[in-house]
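PROTEIN DATA CARD
Card holder: No apical meristem-associated C-terminal domain-containing protein
Chain length: 124
Origin: Aphanomyces invadans
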Amino acid sequence: MDGHAIRAAAAEGLKRKTIEDFTADAEDEGAKKTQLKKELRSSTSISVKDSTNALAKFASVLEHANDYKLEEIAVGKEANMLAARKIKLEEKCYLLDKAEREAQFALEQQERQGLLDIMRGTLE
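Structure generated from the sequence above:
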């Protein structure tokens, strides 16, 4: 029986506390709403300034990114031009080596032909 009385007293205490908290919360809620409205007004002007600054910074970042990309493209073009120049020089070097080998072959062929003519002359 004591347990039931204690439980009932505790429940009654909780009800009172809840009612008191509810009335205090209702009063505080009205004050909080007005305070919240004031903060929203001030934060709106601050957030507009912050968003304007953020947009300006973002635009600046995009501009720098575009400049960087243009520089990267220019470097790529320069690298391509150098590679094309290198290929042309390698082609000219190859053609020069080929002409040198052909000239050497023609000279050796003439020497062999001359030796062959000498051998034929001695045999006759």
